[in-house]
Amino acid sequence: MFPGVVYALLAGFLGAVASSSAKLSLGADYLKGVCEMGLKTWGREDRIFQLDIESAPCDWLHIPLRLMCGGLLFTCNAVMWTFFAKALRLSSSSAQATVTTTASNFISSTFLGRLIFGETHAALWWVGISLTLSGLLILHGSANRESEPTVAKKNE
Questions:
Q1: What is the pTM of this model?
Q2: Is the dihedral of CA 10, 15, 18, 23 positive or negative?
Q3: Which of 130, 140, 129, 135 is nearest to 5 (CA)?
Q4: Among 151, 150, 143, which Cα is nearest to 4's?
Q5: Where are the transmembrane segments (predicted)?
Q6: How many Å apart are CA 88 and CA 1, to the nearest integer?
Q7: Is the Cβ–Cβ distance between 32 and 62 less than 8 Å?
Q8: Cα–Cα dist 5/101, whole Å
Q9: Domain residue extents for the chain
Q10: Spatial separation of the C-alpha atoms in residues 155 and 114, rounded to whole Å
Q11: Backbone phi, then psi, for 139, in 5-degree steps?
């Protein structure tokens, strides 16, 4: 049971990384803005780059970065499906693997959104995600009880 949970947690995390990669690769100008901010920060430490052409490398550099994020998207999706299939095989029920993967994906998406994009969520979002995770936890518990063998009563 334990290896199935580990694979399900990793599958959920990789799904969140894949969706973040998709947002980075298809997002309008996020990578270009990060590139410009990085060059400005680097230019402050080293006064050589204080020219007016600070953003010129970012005009073309965001394209290979987007392509790399696209490759990361496909790679993470492939590995995620592999881990999810292993979780299904090693778990006591398919519901357990699915619920664990979903919960892991929700939590990982929250942290990656905050870390990468600086996203913040309103209190109503936190209430909603708490109710969703509580429901998933109830499903997880009921899936465990259903998989336990029942003891047959002896007829006297």
A1: 0.75
A2: negative
A3: 140
A4: 143
A5: 65-85, 123-143
A6: 10
A7: yes
A8: 8
A9: 2-147
A10: 60
A11: -60, -40
d(CA 18, CA 69): 9
C-alpha of 141 from chain center: 24
Token pair of 16 as six digits: 């969140």
Burial (CB count <10 Å: 0-12, 13-18, 19+), residue 92:
middle
Q: What is the DSSP code string of 30-61?
A: HHHHHHHHHHHHHHHHSGGG-STTTTTTHHHH
Angle in degrees, CA 119, 120, 124, rounded to 5? 135
Please name the residue that has the structure tokens 């780059």.
49
Alpha-carbon distances, residue 134 vs 84, 94, 100, 156 (angstroms): 22, 19, 12, 43
Spatial neighbors of 127 by CB under 8 A, at least 6 apart, are none
Lookup: tokens for 81? 């499906």
Are residues 102 and 108 in contact, defined by beta-carbon separation less than 8 angstroms?
no
The one-digit pLDDT tens for each residue of the chain (156 residues) are 578 899 999 999 999 999 999 988 887 677 777 777 777 776 655 555 454 455 567 777 778 888 899 999 999 999 999 999 999 999 888 888 898 899 899 999 999 999 988 888 899 988 998 998 888 788 777 655 555 555 555 555
- Cα–Cα dist 58/110, whole Å: 28
